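Worked Example 4.2. Consider the chain below.
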Amino acid sequence: MSDLETITQKISAAVGENSGLGKIIKVDFGDAGKILINGASVPNTVTNDDGEADTTIQIAIDDLMAMAKGTLDPMMAFMTGKMKIQGDMSVAQKLAPLLKGA
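Applying the procedure from the previous section yields the following structure tokens:
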């Protein structure tokens, strides 16, 4: 199973049917793929599709995995350019707890 599949499954389990996000978030790993989290509809869905999103987070898979393990601080990742956020930053902050252990 690829890292993308593993992360997608873990995020899907964490999001559940109603995460309370209320928005659509795209996590863009560049050539490695994408994860689209639709928290605007109930039940919430998590897919590897590309699509419009309220917030897009650009990050390398390795950096996301380091954040999930607690070895990379999300604020430090943002400040050093390892993570870029386009759109509503408050939505990205709501996602952070769901990524723990991804």
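The chain has one domain: 3-88. The chain has four helices and five strands. Compare this with Example 4.1 before moving on.
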